[in-house]
Amino acid sequence: MGRLISDIAVTDRITEDKSITKHIPVDEKTGKTKKLYIESYGCQMNFSDSEIVTSILKREGFDTTSDINNADVIFINTCSIREKAEQTVRRRLQQFNVIKAKKPDLTVGVLGCMAERLKTKLLEEEKIVDIVAGPDSYRDLPNLLNQADEGLKGVNTFLSREETYADISPVRLNSNGVTAFISIMRGCDNMCSFCVVPFTRGRERSRDPDSIINEAKQIFDQGYREVTLLGQNVDSYNWNAQINFALLLEMVARINPELRVRFSTSHPKDITDDVLFTMNKYENICTYIHLPVQSGSSRILGLMNRTYDREWYLNKVDRIREILGNDCGISSDMIAGFCSETDEEHKETLTLMDYVKYDFSYMFIYSERPGTPAAKNFTDDIREQVKKKRLQEIIDKQQTLSLERNKREVNKVHRVLIEGHSKRSNDYLQGRNSANKVIVFPRKNLRKGKYVNVLVESCTAATLIGNTIT
Ligand code: SAH
Ligand code: SF4
Ligand code: F3S
What we know:
- The chain is of the alpha/beta class.
- It has three domains: about 5-155, 3-Layer(aba) Sandwich (Rossmann fold), CATH 3.40.50.12160; about 180-405, pyruvate-formate lyase- activating enzyme (Alpha-Beta Horseshoe); about 415-470, CATH 2.40.50.140.
- The protein has helices at about 1-10, 45-60, 85-100, 115-120, 120-125, 140-150, 195-200, 210-220, 245-255, 275-280, 300-305, 310-325, 345-355, 375, 385-405, and strands at about 35-40, 60-65, 75-80, 105-110, 130-135, 155, 180-185, 185, 205, 225-230, 240, 245, 260-265, 290, 330-335, 360-365, 415-420, 430, 440, 450-460, 465-470.
- The longest helix has 24 residues, at about 385-405.
- Residues about 1-15 have low confidence and may be disordered.
- Bound molecules: S-adenosyl-L-homocysteine (SAH), iron/sulfur cluster and FE3-S4 cluster.
């Protein structure tokens, strides 16, 4: 199998920054007259929002197109989480300029977090933009498009306390037909000092559980076999003080044992024993928790306003292992070089990683965001070179841990939901096990959407490689 590892393993999973990865939808040909090209950046919630936007525009007579030159309307759904994410969007707008020069009727709209953060400033800074629409204003898009048609600029960056788009059935874009994401809440009330999300997404609000269950049932009937419940902080889901996240999870798990359930993101301060026990109770709730720590130093965690310290976090990890066992996947987000972080404090992040043995992490250099508490109260004083060095050490540590964790899985049989072809070869399929590990195996005559048992024979830090058994 040695040759196969280099041929088919997906090693870029270790370092990809999703905030600068773009999503483009497939072509839809339902005979509508106008064409929408929508490109999305940022987190999964942003990709979900693009599906809501597409649903709203379909009613207005639009089909999606993957060919930007064919579009009547270009929407770019943006992310502000780090400076780099915004730079990527600005470069794209320059490229749209070239297209618009040839096609003056073209409408260009900036949606999402960058629209919310910059508001009308975007119109001044980027002359090409006709529409600026924040994350809570998508129902207003038909109206904003009409304004643009009349040669006016359309702006709506109103943030709502209620909007959850609960009644809008998303048009699944970029879908493999097997795994789907369902937003269960919007916004965030946490105010981590480094983070722009509370400013771009507004106050936290939960979505009506009936609409969540109906959407999950619907996609199961359409052949999907996995849902991921999405929110910036799913464990604080709360519907009228009657349904908390543990109950919601249970309701979704009961739809059908063949429907896998995942969720993201869990804030360490909010994930309860109840949630862990519910995960244990239902075979189809995947044993995987994304539990971002951000830093291993209690002083830095205090400055970050994460509301837990190192010890508290480690106790939570112990509790997870106690209730769900050592096979439960745990992943994290890490920020290198936050304001005033010393070398010693950085090393505490590395030793915390050693203790937890994360399966996987998203790792970032601290990027100061205007208007956040950290930007107002602290100095971004760690030199870029030092930040980079620390990030590299964190990445190297994660690489070692991922490999170590994956090696434990060799010679074991895993239940895998097939998601489609492997990224490198059509002769191989890929899917994930309960703990969210990517597993690649020969295609044979198997099809996506089915569950198979795979005996893992080898691994890299990013991928398990094996063969199906009957
Ligand atoms: N709600 C999730 C995270 C959403 S943002 C949570 O609380 O865990 C995703 C990740 O981006 C964060 O976990 C953090 O690691 C990173 N991030 C956020 N703001 C950042 C900044 N200013 N600089 C660098 N990374 C940042
Ligand atoms: Fe940002 Fe913190 Fe909210 Fe996550 S929990 S979105 S990091 S403020
Ligand atoms: Fe980015 Fe907004 Fe998501 S800032 S990470 S797109 S909530």
